Automatic annotation (TrEMBL):
GO cellular component, one term: membrane
Molecular function terms, GO-annotated: dioxygenase activity; iron ion binding; L-ascorbic acid binding; oxidoreductase activity, acting on paired donors, with incorporation or reduction of molecular oxygen
Transmembrane segments: 37-56
Domain annotation Fe2OG dioxygenase: ranges: 200-301
Protein's name in the database: 2-oxoglutarate and iron-dependent oxygenase domain-containing protein 3
Source taxon at top rank: Eukaryota
Keywords: Dioxygenase, Iron, Membrane, Metal-binding, Oxidoreductase, Transmembrane, Transmembrane helix
SMART domains attached to this UniProt entry: P4Hc (SM00702)
Cofactor(s) the protein needs: L-ascorbate
InterPro entries named among the record's database cross-references: OGFOD3 (IPR039210), Oxoglu/Fe-dep_dioxygenase_dom (IPR005123), Pro_4_hyd_alph (IPR006620), Pro_4_hyd_alph_FE2OG_OXY (IPR044862)
Cited PANTHER family: 2-OXOGLUTARATE AND IRON-DEPENDENT OXYGENASE DOMAIN-CONTAINING PROTEIN 3, PROLYL HYDROXYLASE-RELATED
Keyword Transmembrane helix included in the entry's annotation: yes
């Protein structure tokens, strides 16, 4: 049995706190909502009538499934989107800074068996703690683990006993998968993979339908990763469980101005995209079951690079 040491909040947790900050997410979503308001006024005043109404009902509803749970893609499915000007506010790095933006989904990069192994790793790690609300994270790099209404650092909290929970093979698999995802992103967006770096936060997430207890549990707010996390240039999500079989709700939604476009999670599915506001997104609320995923993110700025997670 692992003995718990005294509870403490970690400095790393502030990164996670930043991530889930509601105000931020709401600010980012306001541009999207703004366009809806304009249309609403248009409907009320000018009688744009049926067109405006159709637009409103369209953007309120899920309209398009980019990839469903039951499909198995033998090749990545790629959707190009025009880059936003977010990248203008940052230093440019040749061979990495997005010139081509978009989103893509691949089912042929991580096997379902590997996803299952990673899910078991996440289950073991998260069983040491977990949020009181519905969303818990485990960050193998910083050691941040949700606990109650806070975070602890597993490496400090559990010391050497963490080796009873995680093995070198677990970390090796994580590093291998991260490398494959990096290559995939580089090939898809025409980048030089050696100019891309892992950046933080990079974490496992476990989401269920328990009511939120703090803002850390509010994972469903629309947001732009580059705004929320700063250093992100490319975000990837590796899903570890199946939508519709292991959990309900919890689809990933790209919130485009003309439609919502969803990706249905499937164990072993990698979804990735350029992190600017061309890819405003949210996660639907999970209505039943448990959803596991890993967020693995990349930056072009070597100053924001982090090393691969390693057992202490
Ligand atoms: O789990 C997901 O599908 C998306 C999570 C997300 O948007 C994020 O970590 O920024
Ligand atoms: Fe995100």
């Amino acid at each position: 049995m692992v003995q718990r040491r005294g509870k403490s909040s970690t400095p790393e947790s502030s990164v996670i706190e930043k991530k889930i900050k509601r105000g931020n997410a709401q600010r980012q979503a306001s541009a999207w909502r703004g366009s809806q308001t304009v249309l609403f006024v248009c409907v009320a005043l000018a009688g744009c009538g049926i067109v405006g109404w159709l637009y409103l009902s369209q953007t309120d509803d899920i309209t398009e499934t980019l990839v469903s749970r039951s499909e198995v893609l033998s090749q990545p499915r790629i959707f190009t989107v025009q880059c936003s000007d977010d990248y203008e506010n940052y230093k440019r790095f040749p061979g990495c800074t997005p010139q081509k933006c978009g989103r893509a989904v691949a089912d042929n990069v991580v096997t379902r068996e590997e996803a299952h192994t990673l899910k078991r790793l996440a289950e073991r790690g998260l069983s040491l703690g977990g949020s009181d609300g519905g969303a818990s994270i485990l960050d193998l790099h910083s050691g941040a683990l949700s606990m109650g209404k806070k975070f602890v650092n597993i490496y400090r909290y559990f010391g050497d006993q963490i080796r009873d929970i995680f093995s070198e093979e677990d970390f090796e698999l994580y590093r291998d998968v991260r490398g494959r995802i990096q290559t995939l992103i580089a090939e898809t967006f025409g980048l030089n993979s050696s100019h891309m770096y892992l950046t933080k936060p990079t974490f496992f997430s476990r989401i269920n339908s328990t009511a939120p207890k703090t803002t850390h549990d509010e994972y469903w707010h629309p947001h732009v990763d580059k705004v929320t996390y700063g250093s992100f240039d490319y975000t990837s999500l590796l899903y570890l469980s199946d939508y519709g079989a292991e959990f309900g709700g919890g689809r990933f939604v790209f919130m485009d101005s003309n439609a919502n476009r969803t990706v249905e999670p499937r164990a072993g599915r990698v979804s990735f995209f350029s992190s600017g506001s061309e890819n405003l997104h949210r996660v639907e609320k999970v209505t039943w079951g448990t959803r596991y995923a890993i967020t693995v993110s990349f930056t072009c700025d070597p100053e924001h690079a982090i090393a691969n997670p390693a057992l202490p």
